[in-house]
Design a protein that fits this description.
The complex is a heterodimer of chains A (114) and B (113). Chain A is mainly β and 114 residues long. Chain A is globular and about 35 Å long. Chain A starts with a strand and ends with a strand. Chain B is mainly β and 113 residues long. In chain B, strands 2, 5, 6, 10, 11 and 12 form a 6-stranded mixed beta sheet that branches. In chain B, strands 3-9-8-7 form a 4-stranded antiparallel beta sheet, with no helix packed on it. In chain B, strands 1-4 form a two-stranded antiparallel ribbon. In chain B, a hairpin with an 8-residue loop joins strand 10 and strand 11. The chains are: A mainly beta (114), B mainly beta (113). The interface between A and B is medium-sized, with 23 and 25 residues.
């Protein structure tokens, strides 16, 4: 148990659906992240929030929309996804944003887009 | 830009064998280097790290030494166990990546009894 909880663990959605992924941490961390993990590719950083403010968006398509309502919660809203968006989506947190910070990861949401 | 290259997997070893997973990096600054491990069905966990040249990170019998001259951070363990079966990720973080972690593709290790 790393202290970062993601729900749901598995999600199957059609290309016209709208769904949301949820991430929760009660570690008192100030930075939260969304990563995408696809087979045979490096983890891709999608979004970074620091003190509830989005500080980075790595050229992610607008069909992915993050939300950070408070320091403990992070959401990823999904709409009109494509089959190539099927992947494991990982949430992580760290005390602060910096070069030596240890990241704590959730177990991920395995997303399948049909 | 910054990048990390890991040896391709999967790697299959017998219990008590010696493990080496190669990792090299390219960075614009002086990065911190990390190994993360992902056990089946779980998220990534920090295994060890090193923040400057010649530092050695170690944890759970795993070691890696920060070699600036060869830009490498190879992971080693003298005697692997079945419970070490997992995917291992090398990563770096530095000012060139705005402090964000840049990961390699991961190396899957399977240890047979």
């Amino acid at each position: 148990e790393t202290g970062v909880t993601q729900t749901p663990r598995h999600l199957v959605m059609g290309m016209t659906n709208k769904k949301s992924l949820k991430c929760e941490q009660h570690l008192g961390h100030n930075a939260m992240y969304w990563y995408k993990q696809s087979a045979k590719k490096p983890l891709e950083l999608m979004f970074v929030y620091s003190l509830e403010e989005r500080v980075e968006n790595n050229s992610v398509p607008s069909r992915f929309s993050p939300e950070c309502p408070n320091s403990s919660h992070l959401f990823l809203h999904l709409h009109t996804l494509q089959p190539e968006d099927s992947a494991l989506y990982l949430c992580a947190s760290s005390q602060n944003r910096g070069t030596n910070e240890k990241l704590f990861f959730g177990s991920g949401t395995q997303l399948s887009v049909l | 830009g910054d990048s990390v290259t890991q040896m391709e997997g999967p790697v299959t070893l017998s219990e008590e064998a010696f493990l080496t997973i190669n990792c090299t990096y390219t960075a614009t600054g002086y990065p911190s280097l990390f190994w993360y491990v992902q056990y089946p069905g779980e998220g990534l966990q920090l295994l060890l790290k090193a923040t400057k040249a010649d530092d050695k990170g170690s944890n759970k019998g795993f070691e890696a030494t920060y070699r600036k001259e060869t830009t490498s951070f190879h992971l080693e363990k003298g005697s692997v166990q079945v419970s070490d079966s997992a995917v291992y990720f090398c990563a770096l973080s530095d000012s060139g990546s705005q402090g964000n972690l840049i990961f390699g593709k991961g190396t899957k290790l399977s240890v047979k009894p």
